[in-house]
Amino acid sequence: MAKAALQTVDRALQLLEILAEHPRGMQPKEIEECLELNKVTVHRLLATLENRGFIERIGNGYVIGLKIVELSSMKLSNVELKTEAAPYLRELVNKLGLPVQMAILEGSQAVFIDKIESINSFRMYSQIGKRIPVYACGVGKILLMQKTDEEIRKWLDGVEFNQFTSKTLQDVETLLKAIREGRKKGYAVDNEEHEEGIYCVAVPIYDYTGKVIAAISVADTSKQFIKGTNKQIDLIKQTAKQISKRLGYLE
Question: Residue 28, exposed/middle/buried by CB under 10 A (0-12, 13-18, 19+)?
């Protein structure tokens, strides 16, 4: 059963590769001949991929769908984001002597796509690719900040709020309160909500459309770090503005 499933996935990927080489589209008969598959199998593959938006029907033929473009754009955007942000993040680490991370939103989780540590600072239990529930980190609050309260409730409908520390937020309404506070201040905090003894300040990164596409976070072991306005927080916010500007954002 597993072998058959893998074979089906492999055939679907072959089909996408073939269509990518024929931007004007291909007829089902042509696809059958290229893949050396029967009509029924090709029809099932086409129907499944079309239903998911990976291919589109034009007349009697098929072309690559917008879903492929969407996924490719997301990948390219992350590559561009990391490239543009890197020098500013390194500069921030050098100035603060604290670890800096950058995350994007995937479902109900914040995914860290970059991390730079200072040689002289403490080591955080995190790595590139690590996922943290949005309710348990400062970047999570930032990544949700442009959504309305009702959208956030729907976004997190069915999500179980697991407790990582004694200070992890336990419900959507408490999270919404923290997000509202973040909107007012222009930054959000993590008050030991994911790791004991770790305090974080997170700020948004905007793209050219004004959409929050990522968040950067700086961590410290001092609770004073997240209290009120200070030069460190101002510097973090300024760094995010510089990165956003590089991505075409105009205030």
Answer: middle
Compute the distance between CA of residue 204 and CA of residue 28 in angstroms, rounded to an integer: 46
The tokens for 182 are 């973040």
Which residues, listed in sequence order, are joined to residue 189 by a DSSP beta bridge? 201
CA distance 75 to 190: 28
The residues, any chain, with a CB within 8 Å of residue 65's CB and separated by 6 or more, are 49, 50, 53, 54, 55, 56
Give the Cβ contact number of residue 237 at 10 Å.
18
Tens-place pLDDT, residues 41-79: 889 999 999 998 899 988 888 998 888 876 765 665 565
What is the pLDDT averaged over residues 137-158?
95
E-assigned strands of 7-158? 55-58, 61-64, 100-106, 109-116, 131-133
The alpha carbon dihedral of 133, 138, 141, 144 has a sign of: negative
What are the structural domains of the chain? 2-64 (1.10.10.10), 74-246 (3.30.450.40)
The rounded Cα 154 to chain-centroid distance in angstroms is 18
Q: What is the 3-state secondary structure (H, E, C) of 97-132?
A: CCCEEEEEEECCEEEEEEEECCCCCCCCCCCCCCEE
Cβ-count burial 84-95 (b if 16+ within 10 Å, e if not): bbeebbeebbee
Nearest to 60 by CA among 23, 36, 28, 22: 28
Helix (H, G, I), strand (E, B) or coil at 162: coil
Structure tokens at 15: 């089909």
For the record, the structure tokens of 115 come out as 């991390």
Q: Among 139, 228, 141, which Cα is nearest to 179's?
A: 141
pLDDT at 166: 95
